[in-house]
Amino acid sequence: MKDHQELLNLPHKTIERLSQYRRALLLCLEDGRTHIFSHEIAKIQHITPVQVRRDLMLIGYSGTLRKGYNIRELIDLIGEIIDSEEMINVAVVGVGNLGRALIKYFNGKRHKLYIVAGFDINPEKIGKIINGIPCFGTEDMDRVVREKNIKIGILTVPAANAIESSKRLVDAGIKGIVNYTPKPIEVPDNVYLEEYDMVTTLEKVAFYVKMAELKGEKVEGGN
Amino acid sequence: MKDHQELLNLPHKTIERLSQYRRALLLCLEDGRTHIFSHEIAKIQHITPVQVRRDLMLIGYSGTLRKGYNIRELIDLIGEIIDSEEMINVAVVGVGNLGRALIKYFNGKRHKLYIVAGFDINPEKIGKIINGIPCFGTEDMDRVVREKNIKIGILTVPAANAIESSKRLVDAGIKGIVNYTPKPIEVPDNVYLEEYDMVTTLEKVAFYVKMAELKGEKVEGGN
DNA sequence: TTTGCAATGTTATTTACTTAACAAAAATAT
DNA sequence: ATATTTTTGTTAAGTAAATAACATTGCAAA
Predict the structure, then answer these.
(1) Subunit contact A212:B182, Cβ cutoff 8 A
(2) Is residue A99 part of a domain?
(3) What domain count does chain B have?
(4) Which of A38, A55, A74, A126 could disulfide-pair with A49, CB 3.0 to 4.6 Å?
């Protein structure tokens, strides 16, 4: 298998796509297929076949010339690369609509990733089992994160609580954070941070929709 | 102001960052500030001051040398660029946890974007007002999208319904789709599509967390 | 007044990523 | 047998994005 440094040299975008390839491959496997061509994967992911082949080249996987790639093998190889050996435990901080959506959405889907705890400040939620996972008060974060060996925290609290919650996570020794609040947070270098704001995505789509409409008008006006 | 083609030539990443700059600037404005330096914006967004200045150069905004950028002016200029003249109406398809989270999260935050309708197949939701917006059955999508002049659809249905829902949106004449389901969809060229999968993000974070741990172990082992 | 400083604005360079080009291989058709 | 087709795997070229380098400006302090 590829060594540590080779894996780190993989482009970040390739890592993302590997996750997406696996998602698509798992669906194909469910359909009873055993092999798939690069152009088929490409179609699903809205990218080019070359990109797919290049990514697979980078991870050292070879297909067969007329049958394409063995789906089962490829899924396993992607797992070897992006998954950990042991389970990685995840916590959701903020068990509102978004937090609950994530819990439902993740658990049971992946072998090596599991949401094992939720945190909230709402006394009605604390102590309850919500969507199958126990909910704790944020004041217990330090203890629970250590006890359950939680490595990653997903921030789904209201923006006003983002900073405080992220600090608690960091103090509890978390290693990675996904921040879904619209408030950018700061973390030490040893914590991997990914931020995503749905408003930005929507505004971007709105921008290109607007531009397409203006273009349409202009073209029509030109005729 | 910049013309149509100039706006389209802006890098996609710049468009995203403009949205994020505005988000940050609005918070600064609430704090009563009037001016901000590029390095302050940069710090909030975890990027470099040069990047900020370059983006602002691209949109033709100039700050003052010792005071930095006028927050109010910059917010307005970003609005002129990324917002539409008239309101853009948005629909959420799938009023589950994620859909409701989005509704709460968006509405009232932006002048030019508003979620005006939800669609669901659950009879208990149809006809109700959920988080302030009316919920319709998916069979009414065509009518409602046209009546309410809805331009953008946000897909938050279960993966199994993603394809069907996206087809309905397209048939209803939608111009842009944000797909939050884990099932990639296909749309015609004239529909702008943005897909985001939370599992991919989590797996990516898990990968880099794993790599950091392996690195840590290696370093320790080397000592 | 002039020197230094801290900021902006812009061009040049570098890096990261994608796409294109094409050789090689294996199955199939001629 | 030989040519054709289809697909992979890899190197080369091209794009897009980020960073670096640096000129410029205007205020403040000496």
Answers:
(1) no
(2) yes
(3) 2
(4) A38
Nearest-10 crossing angle of helices B49-58, B38-45: 110
- Distance between the two ends of chain A, CA-based, in angstroms? 60
Phi–psi pair at A154, nearest 5 degrees? -110, 120
List Cβ neighbours of B201 (8 Å cut-off, separation of 6 or more): A178, A194, A196
Based on the domain organization, do B61 and B126 belong to the same domain?
Answer: no
Contact criterion met (CB < 8 Å) for A19 and B200: yes
Interface test with A, best of B41, B84, B97 (most A CBs within 10 A): B97
List pLDDT tens digits, range A78-104.
999 999 999 999 999 999 999 999 999
Residues in chain A: 223
Distance from CA of B210 to the nearest CA of A (A): 6
Among B169, A47, A27, CA closest to B179: B169
Confidence band of A2 (pLDDT split at 50, 70, 90) = confident
Of A46, A101, A205, the CB nearest to B176: A205
Residue A133 structural domain: 88-199
Task: Say which residues have a Cβ less than 8 Å from residue A36's Cβ, sequence separation at least 6.
Answer: A25, A28, A68, A69, A71
The CA distance from B17 to the nearest CA of chain A, in Å, is 8
Joined tokens for residue A175: 């290693």
Task: Return all residues near A216 (Cβ < 8 A) that are at least 6 apart.
Answer: none
Given A82, A117, A146, which residue is the final one in a domain?
A: A82
End-of-domain residue from the set B21, B51, B82: B82
Beta strands in chain A (DSSP E): 35-36, 69-70, 88-93, 113-120, 129-130, 133-137, 150-155, 176-179, 192-195
Are B146 and B57 part of one and the same domain?
no
Q: Is A220 domain-assigned?
A: no
The pairing of beta strand B69-70 with beta strand B35-36: antiparallel
* A141-150, A211-220, B63-72, B162-171: segment of lowest average pLDDT: A211-220
Per-residue pLDDT reduced to its tens digit, A159-195: 999 999 999 999 999 999 999 999 999 999 999 999 9
